[in-house]
Amino acid sequence: MLTLHTADLLLAGPGAAPLPGGAVLVEGDRISRVGPYEELGAAWPHARVRRWPGVLTPGLLVHGADALLERTYYPDDPYETAELGAEPLSGAEALAGLAMTESRWGNSARRATQKLLARGVVAVTGRLTVPAVRTAVIRSGLTLLPPTAAVPPAPPSLDPFAGRDTAEQAFFGTLEPNAPARFAVFASPDAQALLEQGATTCVATVITGRLLHRRR
Description:
Layout: E1 2-10, E2 19-20, E3 22-27, E4 30-36, H1 37-43, E5 48-58, E6 60-62, H2 65-70, E7 72-73, H3 81-84, E8 89-90, H4 92-96, H5 102-117, E9 121-125, H6 131-140, E10 143-145, E11 183-186, H7 191-197, E12 202-207, E13 210-214
Parallel strand pairs: 1-5, 6-9, 9-10
Antiparallel strand pairs: 1-2, 1-3, 3-4, 5-11, 7-8, 11-12, 12-13
Helix pairs in contact: 5-6
């Protein structure tokens, strides 16, 4: 099935000129075409159209998945938040009383991956050693990459823009024909506003052509 995703502004990748009214045509799990919506819509009139507000960008990358998913616990809302609070727990002292098991780490990681998808994240770096955590990441659709030489934020953050000077520094890949259909849309007017307003403005995250997050 062909799906045409269009937004007020398209940023295809670092260094690419912003394209007002841009669109990506997705076929299966790949991007087929990138260009102005009017042109693509006329050429493929039978494609399903998804119109989004704001800016459409490549999906985002977060570093430090091992610290975020294997050394940070995300309380289960609403079952644990009354006792533990809603904020993630990290550090030996905070985790000492939780009696963490592999299964519990896996469930926590599953909740964390949903938070990442809700921020437009499509890939993470890190070396995961807990099988249930690794399974949660793979099942979420996120791409797991080895640790890189890039210096991650200290401490690692769910916010892909933490420690970034520009929004483009968090982009993972480029929107171009034959590239994986992996992108996000944010309710921000441009890249600078996106950096200032943050990734929680995400309205949609697409991975391998599938809409894995949509803000209600």
